[in-house]
Design brief:
By secondary structure, the protein is of the alpha/beta class. The chain folds into three domains: 174 residues, inorganic pyrophosphatase (n-terminal core); 153 residues, no CATH class; 117 residues, Roll (Diaminopimelate Epimerase, Chain A, domain 1). Helices cover 43% and strands 16% of the residues. The two termini are 30 Å apart.
């Protein structure tokens, strides 16, 4: 947990970055904002975009999956006075220093920095203050804490700070609550009347989906034989004696009484036990829910977790502009389009789960990693989401990291990795291991200790995976190394 001194130092840095932004706003500078394409990145883009728009700034906003030389060159061609990176940038300081042709850069990120930020880079990163960016604050939280210093009126953007943190699965504290610097964001959201915080069942579509579909769509936690299986969910509800409809209307989880919610949990426990599957995953189904009270009941933007899933689906399916529009307040065309995107996205993920269930030989097992070889099955943009789903069933693989492998569009290989708590406690750091190993294969990698990715230029990643496994073994403390 961050000390008061660490928090104060971080907030002072956020204020310094806000002064840089305000100076350029007063000078009528041209801005370019660059953000990552996941839920946290799109939430960050919404925060910065709204902050600049409200200030009357001239700006461009771009969403990217990774920062490459050609992208940096394209940014330079636009000749912006200032570039703001959110949820990306801290690991690319050398590239920004050497190739980005602009005098001022602001980086608002929560990924481990590479320690090479030059004089033109004003960076706000929790790791520089001893605060864990993987669990204690998301990039959207960093962006928000800067935005509120630009103008106090931006405190309503705290809702997007919460959405971003949940999108990055930072709800790992007791009762699945957000902790660390994220608590400052939550406090502002509650005090501004934008968000209510309660304890309830944590399922996808808590207020918007029929109960059986909400269960089937829930992947955090992953419910074996239920996630992605509406038929099994319907059978479970029938056996538990829970009515599906109120008249002609399908009931939602939010409609259930406390007694019915307990029946549902008991039914899930009984079902999983009858399938000889671990039932302790149910413990993660009760926790803290964040409701955006200004959003209408029944909207997918009302529950913060569902909002984050909506943005993630937009970004991961090549529709980031739809997600940004929603982050900037569009509740008409963009929201309608996003609803269809989410439905297709969920179907795709369900098909991957079904494929893996029927193809156990697709898992290549090493000492510390289980590699899911999805080269001919999994879309490049979906590796992160799929690895998160599988790792959320961490009780099934507590001693192994999950690595999802697929072909990249350029003919190389894309990998997304997730580590279980047990190995994190022993010192596993996926971000550094992937970064170091990928360099040997003409690629790049990085991320957090718990979640990371890489892109390598090989046809067969078998040797890479073997070397990665060995590198991870060397990270473990001597008394637990196997």
């Amino acid at each position: 947990m961050a000390s008061d001194g660490q928090t104060a130092a971080f907030l002072e840095k956020a204020k310094e970055a806000s002064e840089v932004i305000k100076k350029h706003l007063h000078a009528d500078s041209t801005f370019t904002a660059i953000s990552h394409n996941d839920a946290d990145g799109l939430s960050s883009a919404g925060i910065i975009g709204a902050t600049l728009a409200r200030s009357g700034a001239r700006f461009r906003l771009r969403i990217v999956e990774e920062l490459r030389e050609d992208i940096v060159d394209e940014i330079s061609l636009g000749k912006p006075d200032i570039v703001i990176f959110t949820d990306i940038g801290s690991g690319y300081s050398e590239l920004v220093n050497t190739r980005l042709d602009t005098k001022q850069v602001v980086v608002l990120d929560h990924h481990p920095p590479d320690g090479k930020a030059g004089a033109k880079i004003a960076q706000v990163n929790p790791h520089e203050f001893g605060i864990d960016g993987a669990t204690r604050v998301s990039a959207a939280g960093v962006a928000y804490l800067v935005a509120r210093e630009v103008d106090d009126a931006n405190k309503d953007l705290s809702t997007l700070g919460i959405v971003g943190a949940l999108g990055d699965m930072q709800d790992k504290n007791e009762q699945r609550a957000l902790g660390g610097l994220n608590e400052l964001v939550v406090t502002d959201a509650v005090n501004s009347g934008s968000v209510s915080v309660n304890s309830d069942l944590v399922v996808y579509g808590r207020e918007t989906r029929p109960i059986f579909r909400a269960l089937a769509y829930t992947t955090s936690p992953y419910l074996p034989n239920l996630s992605g299986r509406e038929d099994n969910c319907l059978m479970l509800l029938s056996n538990a004696g829970i009515a599906l409809k109120d008249g002609d209307r399908f009931r939602t989880v939010a409609d259930l009484s406390q007694e019915e919610k307990q029946k549902l949990l008991n039914g899930i426990i009984s079902y999983l036990s009858s399938q000889s599957l671990p039932s302790n995953v149910v413990l993660d189904m009760v926790g803290t829910v964040y409701t955006l009270v200004s959003e209408p009941p029944g909207s997918p933007t009302r529950d913060a977790r569902e909002f984050s899933a909506l943005l993630n689906a937009c970004g991961r399916t090549g529709n980031p502009s739809v997600g940004v529009s929603i982050g900037l307040g569009d509740r008409t065309t963009a929201l309608t389009e996003a609803t269809e995107i989410v439905a297709n996205y969920r179907k795709t993920l369900a098909s991957y789960i079904e494929w893996l269930t029927k193809s156990p030989d697709a898992i290549q097992k090493f000492k510390l990693i289980w590699a899911i070889r999805g080269e001919n099955q999994i879309q490049e943009s979906m590796t992160g989401a799929f690895s998160s789903i599988i790792s959320s069933a961490g009780n099934l693989t507590p001693d192994h990291a999950i690595i999802v492998v697929t072909k990249a569009k350029d003919g190389g290989v894309k990998l997304s990795a997730r580590a279980p708590p047990k190995l994190l406690q022993r010192g596993m750091n996926l971000g550094s291991a992937l970064n170091e190993t990928a360099k040997k294969y003409d690629g790049f990698g990085g991320g957090h200790n718990v979640a990371a990715g890489a892109h390598i230029k090989v046809e067969d990643p078998a040797q890479f995976l073997e070397e990665l496994d060995q590198r991870l073994l060397l990270q473990l403390k001597p008394d637990v190394r196997s």
